[in-house]
Design brief:
Helices cover about 45% and strands about 5% of the residues. The chain is built from five helices and two strands, in the order H-E-H-H-E-H-H.
């Protein structure tokens, strides 16, 4: 596992219930602000193995990015079960629900 992958797992694991982050926000907090697509890959391949709260990670517009209807529905249900409002079935108001991790995620 690369150090960046380990950091992404750490950042995602730290997103508290009732909060969300964007793929880019996770990448930045893990030390590589331009690696949002890598975060997607890591979530896709490691969510089950590390019990990551994958549903708390959204695209830069605060939207559920999953195209598969069933998985998108499941993500929405998980978010709503944490009292996160999902507008139009896909969008979360980032100003209200976005998590900003402590500075220690920024540097080592």
């Amino acid at each position: 596992m690369t150090p960046f992958t380990a950091k992404v797992i750490e950042v995602i694991s730290a997103i508290p219930k009732g909060k969300v982050m964007t793929y880019g926000g996770v990448a930045a907090a893990a030390g590589s602000p331009r690696a949002a697509r890598q975060v997607v890959r890591i979530l896709h391949s490691m969510s089950s193995k590390y019990a990551l709260p994958w549903h708390r990670v959204l695209n830069k517009a605060g939207e559920i990015a999953i195209q598969d209807d069933e998985s998108a529905f499941m993500q929405r249900m998980f978010l709503e079960s944490e009292d996160i409002e999902v507008l139009d079935g896909r969008r979360v108001i980032l100003e209200k629900f976005q998590f900003h991790p402590e500075p220690y995620f920024q540097e080592e």
